[in-house]
Automatic annotation (TrEMBL):
Highest taxon in the source lineage: Bacteria
Gene3D superfamilies, per the entry: Tetracycline Repressor, domain 2
GO MF annotation terms: DNA binding
Originating species: Paenibacillus campinasensis
Residues annotated to bind DNA: 29-48
InterPro entries given in the database record: Homeodomain-like_sf, HTH_TetR
The HTH tetR-type domain, residue ranges: 6-66
Keywords of this entry: DNA-binding
Protein name (record): TetR family transcriptional regulator
Keyword Oxidoreductase part of the UniProt annotation: no
């Protein structure tokens, strides 16, 4: 009898991630992952207690991918980086984006904490934002996330004017970021939130 194939947790997560990006999170099943790996279900259960644990690992993979996309942007602006990464993710992974950003789910509960810490840290590197404390940066980030999420949803659903290419969208994000930061500065100078 030939030896059974052994798979690492990373290989299993990568296979589940491929299913999620092409068919959606709800399509991840232990049996489907095993079939795509040419295996029985046993190696998956050796690494993951159940399908929900595997799906959480896929979402963690998405978080890491998001952080990587932000760091790769290097637009010179933290908001430019964050917005461009969001637009890139929505464009490259529209099925996953819809599942995670547009459908009610429990998968993104830790997103604000996980990604928020990384993004606020990224914002602290911008000398133009040095006057803001961490709480103020988190509020600015939240406001920008609301705007960029709406823009990303419109982009992934084909609801933007045809002339709005990626460069136009990035410029729009930059304008919105400038508006949010200027408003935060004004409120700070007035002593209000």
């Amino acid at each position: 009898m030939p030896p059974k194939k052994k798979f690492t947790a990373e290989q299993i997560v990568e296979t589940a991630f491929h299913i999620a990006k092409t068919e959606g999170m709800d399509s991840i099943t232990i049996r489907k992952v095993a079939e795509q790996m040419g295996s029985s279900i046993a190696p998956i259960y050796v690494n993951f207690e159940d399908v929900e644990e595997l799906k959480r690992a896929v979402v963690q993979r998405v978080h890491e991918l998001g952080k990587q996309m932000v760091l790769e942007q290097d637009t010179g602006s933290p908001f430019g980086d964050i917005g461009a990464a969001s637009l890139q993710f929505a464009k490259e992974y529209p099925i996953l984006f819809r599942d995670l950003a547009m459908k009610p789910n429990d998968y993104m509960q830790n997103y604000d904490q996980d990604m928020g810490d990384a993004l606020v840290s990224h914002m602290k590197q911008d000398p133009d934002l040095a006057e803001f404390d961490e709480e103020e940066l988190r509020l600015i980030l939240f406001k920008m996330r609301v705007f960029q999420a709406g823009l990303s949803i419109m982009a992934v659903n084909g609801q933007l004017p045809a002339e709005m290419d990626l460069d136009h969208l990035k410029a729009l994000l930059d304008d919105a970021a400038e508006d949010v930061v200027l408003a935060a500065r004004w409120r700070k100078s007035k002593g209000s939130n």
